[in-house]
């Protein structure tokens, strides 16, 4: 064991004497600054983008719309869609809604078109359409008649929509909207929504329908009781959310409501919810209920993924830093390729083998040194990224945990531990590619060849897998590149259906054994 330790020590000394190794360590430290820095810059840029456009005078803008559409309607007419736009603009002007961040703006856009559609009379539409068809001169050419028929459809639709717009003004639902707009009180809106759904629940025919309505009641009750701002229907929003206007409670409550509806629908055969959607929805409901019952107000999972988070904070920075693990992989490929190949190019392999140490121990010591240096770099990156993230975003959130649903139960994991686990999972690709480079350099005795092939595999492997997956070549699931992203496989979002973590680990293990057998045979049995 002492001889092996000395071999490893010598390997570390040789590696640390290389200028390239020092440069790599500096690059790792730099990466620890760069990735959090990117997140910080993004945060600063996002802080200038608000929900809504304060620079636009919304009232003046919609006054122009009203004037333009009314003038056009008195001459050439307007389309059905423009009829709805006209009615919406009239309300925006009437209640002086000056900014589209105003919750009343969403209220108008989300409800008025639904009410008009509800008041739309199909029989009246058919009647108007028949009258328009009668006006068409049958002596015209077939093409001219067809063009006039298409125009008749538009005219009839427009007239029917105008009638519907006037009809809904007599409905109690319309009066309720006007009352809410007049009060400009968010609680009045929430109370109105709750009363409406309570009445709907009384009319529900089945327990499933009642449960769906109750999920909506629970949503608006939560918003009302906790003074949560109204952002509208998520699927209809196209805005940039920042910390200055973001309230995660609204989105959590909305997602809980939609997920509860999906669960109820699936369990009662209502709608088209798939098994996978049902499973995800059930987990969201379980997690939401847990956080509400335990008064948990922050979940690292909501911020740690830069592609899915609504806000940018300390955990977004830490999540972004995991991307740098692949950068470590590129550096370790270089170290692995140089580890053996340089002994041949420098002519030091003979001096190394003169020592009374078995060849396999020399090989293992070199490999151990390469992999351990990779993990030292990984730990260094984690430490630097954490420190820089604290500098940029403060430490108020550092003690938070990540809450996830595992097998139907909520599991809480300390945030930093969860991020470090992501580092370790991502490091599997680093180890595999380093082993490949190590095997090639041992076999070919060329560092350049080993570096080139390994980097090509690392950078292009996913592209190859994506192409093979698109071509429906299922055997590609057994390629090493299709099994390296264990996190995606665990989430069920890999390139191939029904791919399991256990199978992926098995494929990785088989490839690692093959790489090692190549290196073993080339170093211990062949004439060096």
Describe this structure in words.
By secondary structure, the protein is mostly helical. It has three domains: 2-47 and 322-397 and 413-525, no CATH class; 54-184, no CATH class; 187-239 and 247-310, no CATH class. Helices cover 70% and strands 2% of the residues. The protein has helices spanning 2-17, 19-46, 58-73, 80-94, 103-118, 122-134, 142-167, 172-183, 186-203, 207-225, 248-267, 275-293, 314-321, 325-345, 349-354, 359-393, 415-444, 447-470, 486-490, 501-525; strands at 401-406, 409-414. The protein has a two-stranded antiparallel ribbon. A hairpin with a 2-residue loop joins strand 1 (401-406) and strand 2. Helix 3 (58-73) packs across helix 4, helix 4 (80-94) packs across helix 5 and helix 5 runs antiparallel to helix 8. 30% of the residues are buried.
Main sheet record: 2 strands, antiparallel
What amount of the residues lies in strands? under 5%
Any idea what the radius of gyration is?
Answer: 32 Å
Helix content: over 70%
Total strand count, please?
Answer: 2
Strands of the biggest beta sheet: in what spatial order? 1-2
Features:
528 residues; mainly alpha; 3 domains; two-stranded antiparallel ribbon; 20 helices; 2 strands; 70% helix
In short:
With 528 residues, this protein is mainly alpha-helical. It has 20 helices and two strands. The protein folds into three domains: 2-47 and 322-397 and 413-525, no CATH class; 54-184, no CATH class; 187-239 and 247-310, no CATH class.
């Amino acid at each position: 064991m002492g001889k092996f330790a000395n071999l490893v020590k010598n390997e570390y000394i040789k590696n640390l004497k290389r200028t390239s190794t020092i440069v790599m360590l500096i690059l790792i430290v730099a990466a620890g600054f760069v990735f959090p820095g990117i997140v910080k810059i993004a945060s600063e840029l996002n802080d200038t983008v608000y929900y809504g456009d304060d620079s636009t005078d919304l009232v003046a803008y919609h006054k122009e719309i009203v004037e333009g559409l009314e003038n056009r309607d008195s001459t050439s007419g307007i389309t059905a869609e423009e009829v709805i736009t006209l009615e919406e603009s009239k309300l925006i002007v009437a209640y002086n809604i000056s900014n589209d961040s105003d919750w009343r703006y969403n209220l108008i856009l989300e409800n008025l078109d639904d009410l008009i559609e509800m008041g739309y009379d199909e029989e009246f539409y058919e009647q108007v359409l028949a009258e328009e068809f009668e006006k068409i001169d049958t002596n015209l050419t077939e093409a001219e008649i067809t063009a006039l028929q298409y125009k008749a459809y538009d005219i009839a639709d427009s007239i029917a929509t105008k009638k519907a717009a006037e009809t809904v003004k007599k409905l109690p639902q319309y009066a309720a909207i006007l009352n809410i707009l007049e009060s400009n009180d968010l609680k009045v809106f929430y109370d109105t929504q709750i009363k409406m759904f309570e009445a709907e629940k009384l009319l529900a025919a089945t327990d499933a329908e009642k449960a769906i309505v109750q999920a909506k009641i629970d949503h608006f009750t939560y918003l009302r009781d906790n003074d949560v701002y109204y952002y509208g229907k998520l699927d209809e929003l196209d805005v940039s959310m920042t910390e200055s206007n973001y309230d995660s409670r609204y989105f959590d409550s909305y997602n809980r409501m939609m997920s509860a509806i999906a669960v109820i629908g699936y369990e009662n055969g209502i709608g088209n919810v798939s098994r996978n959607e049902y499973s995800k929805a059930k987990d969201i409901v379980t997690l939401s209920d847990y956080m509400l019952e335990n008064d948990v107000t922050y979940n690292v999972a909501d911020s740690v993924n830069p592609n899915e988070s609504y806000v940018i904070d300390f955990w977004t920075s830490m999540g972004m830093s995991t991307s740098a693990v692949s950068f470590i992989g590129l550096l370790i490929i270089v170290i692995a390729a140089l580890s053996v190949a340089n002994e041949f190019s420098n002519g030091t392999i003979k001096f190394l083998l003169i020592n009374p140490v078995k060849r396999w121990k020399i090989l293992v010591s070199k490999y151990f040194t390469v992999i351990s240096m990779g993990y030292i770099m990984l730990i260094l990156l984690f430490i630097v990224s954490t420190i820089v993230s604290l500098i940029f975003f403060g430490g108020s959130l550092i003690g938070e945990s990540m809450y996830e649903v595992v097998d139907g139960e909520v599991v809480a994991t300390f945030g930093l531990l969860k991020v470090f686990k992501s580092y370790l999972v991502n490091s599997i690709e680093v180890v595999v590619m380093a082993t490949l480079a190590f095997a090639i350099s041992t076999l070919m005795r060329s560092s350049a060849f080993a570096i080139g092939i390994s980097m090509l595999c690392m950078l292009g492997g996913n592209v190859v897998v994506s192409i093979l997956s698109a071509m429906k070549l299922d055997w590609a699931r057994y390629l090493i590149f299709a099994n390296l992203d264990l996190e995606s496989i665990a989430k069920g979002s890999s390139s191939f259906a029904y791919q399991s973590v256990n199978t992926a680990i098995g494929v990785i293990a088989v490839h690692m054994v093959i790489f090692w057998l190549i290196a073993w045979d080339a170093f211990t049995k062949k004439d060096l």
